[in-house]
């Protein structure tokens, strides 16, 4: 029996071998078909007109070997008929990201000699803004034409309408115009048409397109077209159109007037990122074949209409980021729904158990709503196919038995802000292959279970356990893991800092009890690392010196630990570094001069150490064109403040307080452009955005934020400034040994909000035009040897909330104004010759208002309420701004979400900045897309 079986296998094998040989022979024979001489010449002429990047044409050679001479059918991208030898396809798509493309500003008309060409793909190349050549219309046999994203511009040639065999046409992502789409009328076979990123000015664009009798797929993403009148659509609806993509086309609510007349056979409708207001119309229920409906990112409101339950084919319902309200729909029960995205709406009530009946559901995202109540096993009863579960940012609490074994094996688990504690949710243990786990802010106060670490699959990309009370240690991560982001900050983790995998971009361990040295980070080369935050732990030893291995680092925060020794000179190799926090350690020695290489730096905070030496002359604007925040606070720096520092024209916060600086204050403070101009805000935005690679669904693009902060003396207290840091414009030179006058240039710092020069040995008068510093909220000049009278201008600083002039040699009468008199007497104490309210009245003082003019600086314009927001104004309204930058590769698209998600999550947000970000990222995206 066994023998017999064996024999069979051998026979099968032989038969297979023979078949294989025959096949091979056949293939060999077909490859021998030689290309037509004339067509070879045509191809060579085509090649001659183009520059080849990355070897597109490397195989396009004429060998001298007799037999090989005509083998142009083997050239890259050339395909011939295996019977006639004619070239039937020329497929030369470029790829910019691989630096593999063709460049030229003319396509040779020699292509016309390829009479049998059926398929032409020149997408992704660079044709330098040239027009699409008219002769293309003479390639009568073409069935597929792809010129996507190849930098063509100008008017789409009408001649394309002559290619009557055309079945697919993609001319998207170029800079094309179309005034008239009448030429489409001849293309009776066209089934797929992509005109995305095109400027269409034909008022009858939609009728002209819908007349195409075979059209099945129409893509018009990011296109511009004239407003459409529903009446003009009568009798022109398409019988065949199945896919309609109108993403990001600025459509408004009138869309619904015509949408339902476009085609009765629609299966997929993409309408996200438009301006559609109002309710979701019941008319969707008439589209019987609808499978995919994306209405995300509009302004829809009201409830999800019950009529949608008639859509028995519906599989994907994407309604994220609207203003929809009401409770979650019960009616979905009957659907074969696979994807339900309701993120970022106003849904209320509980998560209905009926959702747990959707046995085909793979993707469930109800995050960022106002859902309440308990989540139990019954919510997941039949969800055996679920892959993505996002319940984050509601008010949901989990009540799930520790023995529960769910039927699903999730890929994405996002339970941020869900009450899943106090114990660590044990069911997570049954999830073997997740790539995303977010349990931040989940009220977990137990020890981290050991299985969590051993369970992590190699594919896990994102782990967020931050803002809990989780204790325990974290073992080293295997270097093979694919992590992009690990955040365990704000917990009670202890033990040594674990090794993390080199793929990681983001590593946040701050606000824990990690201890010991971190020298082991030098054992791995972290080339991808962008954010390293180990602040507020108990780390000791020297700061390691292996930074050239982390050349992508943008943010480094080692503050509030017990690091000792010198600042390593290797930090100078971090050319991308934007933010350097080494505050509150035991660092000593001088600033390494290599730091001047870090020309991307915006913020240096090295306060609260024992650093010595002078401020180096290389701290100049030429080295640090973007520097906005500089804090040397609380060190042992000495010498004079070099005037070079004034060339940091973007500076908003200069804190040199509590050092041993001596000499005079440089005269050049009026060079600080950002402090002079009250409207400049050097805001950036730190947000590291990236996207989960497997899910090309907008609601899963996750944005990681990093909010920069500084410790400052603000209104008399040392405070950590986070949210409004970019608005804070501050100069603090207090607690040094500075002498001489307060330079007159200070008065030109019209944007300055806080000025502290206290506890020095400054002499001379107060500036008479101090009233020009109209944004000033805090002024502390106490404990100097200032003399003379208090200028009346001081009384005009409307925003002044903190004033301290105590312990000087000021004389005369305190100018009268409701403001100055409202300060405590202690603000003026210790000036023996000063009088008037709130101190004792001056001798012979009367209620004569003219006396107050003696200090007059009459040239000053009084302006109140010019619309500039003060810090306290902004604070009052809870408005905040986040410092930083955006970066990311494919993640850029994800950063479009920044505005929404941040607004809904941690911080309220200043819309102006939000829009700036939106514009910037959109532009960036469009650029990436088009270029
Ligand atoms: C020609 O060759 C291709 C690919 O080798 C093959 O798929 C096709 O069936 C062949 N056509 C004919 C007519 O032999
Ligand atoms: C370009 O090449 C990259 C890297 O090989 C690849 O990931 C990407 O999909 C390619 N793009 C296109 C449009 O083919
Ligand atoms: C297209 O080509 C023009 C002309 O060479 C050039 O200025 C432009 O930058 C190119 N556009 C893109 C998106 O590459
Ligand atoms: C589209 O083209 C017209 C000219 O035909 C021009 O006036 C208009 O500004 C363009 N629109 C966009 C969005 O580029
Ligand atoms: C639409 O078609 C019907 C019947 O074919 C015809 O009576 C009617 O006039 C047409 N309407 C328009 C606006 O062309
Ligand atoms: C939805 O919520 C937003 C933010 O809380 C609120 O401004 C808006 O008025 C709400 N809309 C409705 C229809 O309840």
UniProtKB/TrEMBL annotation:
Coarse class of the primary localization is membrane
Q: Which family does it belong to?
A: Belongs to the RLP family.
**Which keywords fit this entry according to its UniProt record?**
Cell membrane, Glycoprotein, Leucine-rich repeat, Membrane, Repeat, Signal, Transmembrane, Transmembrane helix
On the tree of life, the source organism's domain of life is Eukaryota
| Residue intervals of the Disease resistance R13L4/SHOC-2-like LRR domain | 239-431
What region holds the Leucine-rich repeat-containing N-terminal plant-type domain? 38-81
Topological type in the membrane? Single-pass type I membrane protein
- Residues of the signal sequence? 1-29
Compartment(s) where it occurs, according to its Swiss-Prot or TrEMBL record: Cell membrane
| Keyword Cell inner membrane among record annotations | no
Q: Which InterPro entries match?
A: Leu-rich_rpt, Leu-rich_rpt_typical-subtyp, LRR_dom_sf, LRR_N_plant-typ, LRR_R13L4/SHOC2-like, RLP23-like
Pfam assignment, any one: LRR_8
Origin organism is: Rehmannia glutinosa (Chinese foxglove)
Q: Where are the transmembrane segments?
A: 877-898
Q: What is this protein called?
A: Uncharacterized protein
